[in-house]
């Protein structure tokens, strides 16, 4: 009996030790989860969801409006062209129209990175508000010009001031949302702003019908610029009251909510992600070779979108022989289709937690669309090709930005990555503005072939990068690679 009692005591001791070990293991796992990626998680899921809801309500409305105005103001030259601008300013001589298009992108590219540095130091509301007002004044001024040189100068200033908007918007979104929350939100941001661009030709047609007096202001193209420029100036003056700041600067969150908002997306310790970078620090970050390939992806996406935006109305008018009114009105439905499909596939990408299959699929859709535009005979079939090309090209702009954002561990670096990509995108804009040459009208075969070739390149780059990222993740999971992107626990999102 005594032996049995001693045995029972020993069993009790073992059970007690097992309970202690289990308790310690649970605490260790909880500690590991709470400090994943170096960030101490001291908040609940409910608190996090509440902050995301507040961010959704405050981040997007004004950003979408001003981004829509940006796209509208840079592409309305196509509508003005067929509304009389080409005749009055003799843009049919030589390469005048192409020069006026491409000059926009040179200062646009150069101003990206400096604007990001100023944005972080000055604050989003006032800096972006200034940029919006300034480029609105440039568009307004285009309604009063009398020669193509003045148009070219104003387009250059338009590019300078618009240069800071898109990377600034992506930076703001990246500072509020986590890795697999970004694709759908960047897509919403970009796609909703496309509503303005999509309905731009219809608005331009309505504005071109305005007539004032008996002189030069009976020319409808002037009123396209005057009305749209005035609206943008008004939006710029209102922007400081409606645009959102970075999480650590907003007033609608409590101090605890600010702490959660900053650290839920940060993979760095001690809140370093919120410290502004100097210009030289930003330049040093550009040494990362990933950024070159992200930028090449974005170059292809932007060149396709730019060529469509600048020449769609002209292709409909000259290539498919629609009337002026029909060419303007038919320019809008492809954008609406692109918006619906872009948002849908961005949601799918976040849901399946994969980027590359969606990006490559969209690129292939664009490629098929350009083939149809090039080889189909019936105008209706070629118009269907525009739908596909518009969707595939437009969807890969926010998709590529989200893809690059997800491969960048440090929040500090995301603004630099966005600025670098969009600077390269400016080169894509130059390409898209020049490959559709006036001497190739009405079929524009060289420009379409060049775009098809770039879409093939996009597929190859995206697939190669994604397979490399998957291999790096596997090596890190197997313990063969200690740290990715210099951050403990980080994994790429191919």
Automatic annotation (TrEMBL):
GO CC terms: membrane
Annotated Major facilitator superfamily (MFS) profile domain ranges read: 59-474
Where does the record place the region Disordered? 22-46
Q: Where in the cell is it found?
A: Membrane
Query: What molecular function terms (GO) are annotated for this protein?
Result: transmembrane transporter activity
Compositionally biased residues, Polar residues: 22-38
Q: Which UniProt keywords apply?
A: Membrane, Transmembrane, Transmembrane helix, Transport
Q: Which InterPro entries match?
A: MFS, MFS_dom, MFS_trans_sf
Which membrane topology describes this protein? Multi-pass membrane protein
Which SUPFAM superfamilies does the record match to this protein? MFS general substrate transporter (SSF103473)
Query: What is the protein named?
Result: MFS general substrate transporter
Organism this protein belongs to = Sporormia fimetaria CBS 119925
Q: What is the lineage of its organism?
A: Eukaryota, Fungi, Dikarya, Ascomycota, Pezizomycotina
């Amino acid at each position: 009996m005594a032996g049995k009692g001693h045995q029972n005591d020993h069993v009790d001791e073992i059970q007690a030790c097992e309970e202690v070990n289990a308790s310690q293991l649970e605490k260790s796992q909880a500690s590991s989860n709470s400090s994943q990626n170096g960030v101490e998680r001291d908040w609940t899921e409910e608190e996090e969801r509440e902050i995301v809801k507040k961010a959704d309500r405050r981040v997007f409305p004004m950003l979408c409006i001003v981004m829509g105005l940006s796209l509208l103001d840079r592409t309305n030259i196509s509508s003005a062209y067929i509304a009389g601008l080409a005749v009055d300013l003799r843009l049919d001589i030589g390469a005048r129209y192409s020069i006026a298009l491409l000059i926009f992108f040179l200062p646009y590219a150069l101003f990206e990175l400096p604007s990001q540095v100023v944005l972080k130091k000055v604050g989003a509301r006032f800096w972006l508000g200034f940029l919006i007002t300034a480029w609105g004044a440039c568009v307004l001024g285009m309604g009063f010009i009398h020669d193509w040189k003045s148009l070219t100068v104003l387009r250059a200033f338009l590019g300078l001031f618009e240069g800071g908007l898109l990377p600034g918007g992506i930076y703001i979104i990246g500072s509020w949302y986590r890795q697999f929350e970004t694709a759908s939100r960047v897509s919403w941001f970009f796609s909703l702003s496309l509503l303005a661009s999509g309905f731009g030709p219809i608005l331009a047609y309505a504005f071109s019908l305005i007539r004032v007096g008996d002189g030069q202001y009976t020319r409808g193209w002037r009123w396209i610029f005057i009305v749209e420029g005035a609206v943008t100036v008004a939006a710029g003056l209102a922007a400081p009251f409606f645009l959102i700041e970075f999480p650590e600067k907003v007033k609608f969150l409590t101090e605890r909510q600010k702490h959660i908002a900053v650290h839920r997306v940060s993979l760095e310790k001690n809140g370093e992600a919120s410290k502004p970078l100097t210009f030289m620090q930003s330049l040093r970050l550009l040494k990362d070779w990933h950024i070159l390939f992200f930028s090449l992806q974005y170059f292809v996406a932007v060149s396709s979108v730019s060529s469509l935006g600048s020449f769609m109305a002209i292709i409909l008018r000259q290539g498919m022989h629609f009337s002026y009114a029909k060419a303007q009105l038919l320019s809008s439905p492809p954008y609406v289709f692109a918006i619906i499909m872009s948002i849908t596939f961005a949601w799918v990408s976040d849901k399946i937690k994969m980027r590359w299959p969606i990006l490559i699929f969209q690129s292939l859709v664009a490629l098929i669309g350009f083939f149809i535009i090039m080889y189909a005979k019936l105008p209706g079939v070629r118009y269907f090709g525009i739908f596909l090309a518009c969707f595939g090209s437009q969807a890969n702009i926010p998709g590529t930005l989200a893809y690059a954002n997800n491969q960048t561990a440090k929040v500090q670096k995301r603004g630099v990555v966005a600025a670098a990509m969009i600077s390269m995108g400016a080169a894509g804009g130059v390409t898209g503005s020049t490959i559709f040459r006036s001497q190739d009208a009405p079929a524009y075969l060289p420009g379409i072939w060049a775009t098809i070739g770039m879409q093939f390149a996009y597929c190859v780059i995206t697939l190669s990068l994604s397979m490399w990222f998957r291999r790096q993740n596997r090596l890190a999971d197997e313990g063969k690679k200690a740290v990715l992107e210099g951050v403990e626990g980080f994994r790429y999102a191919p």
